Amino acid sequence: MSAPFMSLYRCCQRSALLVVSRRSLSSVSPPSSVSPPSSVSPPSSVSPPSSVSPPPLHTRFLLYLTQCFYDVEMLQSWTFLQRWKRIQKRNTYYGYTQKNYGSDIAAAYYILSLKGGLRFVGQSEWFIADRRGKFNWAFLDHKDTPLEEVNMNYTDINYRGLDNLEEQKSLRTLSLRGCPEVNDWFLARLHMFEDSLEELDISHCPRITTGGLAALRNLKGLKRLDVSSLPGISSPGVVIILLEEMLPKCDVTANGYDHTLREES
């Protein structure tokens, strides 16, 4: 039996035990097999024991939640672990594909497997996976043709997955808009594209911080950079000014911030 069903089973079992214990407290009676002698009567001064009233409803509810807390916490931890394993597996190194089809086909297959899109050098056609993850296998006809543009918007690409793109020395455009796993470690590895990358979109990535943006100084050939709506950025006005000084030939787009400090400067 899997962990989530075990947790649900224990919660239901504890709920049943609470109901049984409440009933046992509300009605306490001696065993039916034992009866007092008929000739002996209890003293008139001794009154029968009063029934024990159950605790209030909100108290029983809080007790139930307390007992279920650790099961819920375990279920959340299990869910997080399974999601982490799934992301790591999807970003594994496609060594077998690279060995048999070359680094360009391996990179394309990795991108499409994550529901991304790509365009080869000298080609106008884009290969894009649909919402169900299906794509056109005609990309196999472009063996030994490097990638020029890659769109990984809203995918689960992480820093490990960059191993599959390391040989793409002709990559000019990389779009990573809204990628939840793109973080500072990811930006630090983008130096592998320092001689080719011209356009980079890292907008709406929740795990990027101010410190990670400093790694972009290695991309000297960058012409367009989109850093819009990064919630992990503190003092965005100052950061944007520093980016423009660090990359003087780059057009920096930064929407979704308060640019008061930038205007004053």
Automatic annotation (TrEMBL):
Region feature (Disordered): 27-53
> Quaternary form?
Interacts with incompletely assembled mitochondrial NADH:ubiquinone oxidoreductase complex (complex I).
Would you identify the family this protein belongs to, as annotated? Belongs to the ATP synthase subunit s family.
According to UniProt, the name of this protein is Distal membrane-arm assembly complex protein 2
Q: Which organism is it from?
A: Champsocephalus gunnari
What this chain does, per the entry, is described as: Required for the assembly of the mitochondrial NADH:ubiquinone oxidoreductase complex (complex I). Involved in the assembly of the distal region of complex I.
Q: Where is the composition biased (Low complexity)?
A: 27-50
List the InterPro entries.
Leu-rich_rpt (IPR001611), LRR_dom_sf (IPR032675)
